[in-house]
Amino acid sequence: MTGGRRPPAHRPAVAVLGATGCVGRAVTAAFERAGRPVLGVARRPPPDPAGRRFHPLDLAAVDAAGLAELLAAAGVGTVVNAAGGWVTGPAENERAHVRLVENVLDACARLPDPVRLVQLGTVHEYGPLPAGTAADETLVPRPESVYARTKLAGAEAVLRAARAGAVDGVVLRVVNLCGPDVSAAGFLGAAVRRLRAATPDRPAELTVADARRDFLDVRDLAAAVVAAAAAPVTGQVVNVGRGEAVPLSHLLDLLIAAAAPPPGAVRLRTAPVDSRGGDWTLADIGRAARLLGWRPEVDLPTSIKDMWDASRADHPVEHA
Fold it and tell me: The pTM is what?
């Protein structure tokens, strides 16, 4: 269904949930550049709020009425759920990806005017893909990991609420991320951390897997979120990625070139790499182009170089 109800003009603010994470920071910066006031919400305040509006809140435990009051007082017309992430254990995944979404939906339903909700999901909701295939939005999800199953449950809750008219919601299914400040819990983030500590006496050991995955710069994701916030698309899933399955070995080559370590500071070995989504990920991004008018712009060499530069202590690269 398209043509969802838009929030009225007197509530233009954006609430970014999970505002202190890598994605939340990039999304916040993108909305600020677009001239939208932003309310950041997360469990812990940022180390440097830089004059931004921020409210510390545990969204998985919050009373929905209290959250609704906070959103109304801030004049929020758009909510972006960038909270959650790589957590361990069934209970913590349920808390971060299901209970939190239910609380947000309950709060949005209490507001007097329809709220635009952009839910950030994951390509892993589709489940493992056969090599050589691209997941489009018509594919029936068959997630296998607890992370992917709970992310799918949260996404489906948003879609049900949107189709019932309780919220003006859309789900973005996002591929693996690269770029400035990407989490150290991911493949590339962990490699950056090891390379930063590497010396010829204590070399970084990096594992190269025979795998291909779709990687997107976090700043391109932020641009897609801004586009989705304004697009007349409700109750649908939209894939967001580069639409390319890139060998992990190529990504490591780009990272090592950016790091330029001294001779002997890196040791490469070939072995399987633990993955929450299989050795092949590839998103069909045609719907994003058609409905959001969005396409990725940051090439992978630039993204990987900026990711490395952003890991320096003086942090010379913008979040977005």
Answer: 0.92
